[in-house]
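Example for tutorial group B:
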């Protein structure tokens, strides 16, 4: 599935992998984030930090008319304030998608899948 955006000059189609790469880079640049994990963490029962080429496993993109929502699945460091990390991720993802891809996100939902304890 791809996100389709209608412009005066025609239609733009962005694949999920492109959006997931931009979103994944914005997420992993935040302090307190260990990395992104698979959205099917509990089904797979394996905790694996995703690399750049697999960011699409930890990002879910959905479009309902003009509303575009992104769900990200992350792993955080113990001792950090999770609510602040999630707010920073939401702001960073919205900003990067607007600046780099040229469309606005309606929602950025952050799902914390676990906490890394040293």
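The residue assignment follows.
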């Amino acid at each position: 599935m791809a996100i389709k955006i209608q412009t005066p000059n025609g239609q733009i189609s962005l694949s999920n992998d492109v959006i997931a790469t931009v979103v994944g880079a914005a997420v992993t640049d935040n302090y307190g984030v260990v990395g992104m994990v698979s959205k099917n963490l509990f089904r797979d029962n394996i905790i694996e930090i995703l690399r750049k080429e697999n960011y699409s496993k930890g990002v879910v993109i959905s479009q309902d008319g003009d509303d575009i929502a992104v769900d990200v699945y992350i792993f955080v460091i113990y001792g950090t304030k999770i609510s602040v990390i999630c707010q920073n991720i939401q702001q960073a993802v919205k900003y990067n998608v607007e600046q780099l891809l040229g469309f606005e996100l309606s929602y950025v939902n952050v799902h914390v899948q676990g906490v890394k304890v040293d």
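The chain has a mean pLDDT of 86. Compare this with the pattern of hydrophobic and polar residues in the output above.
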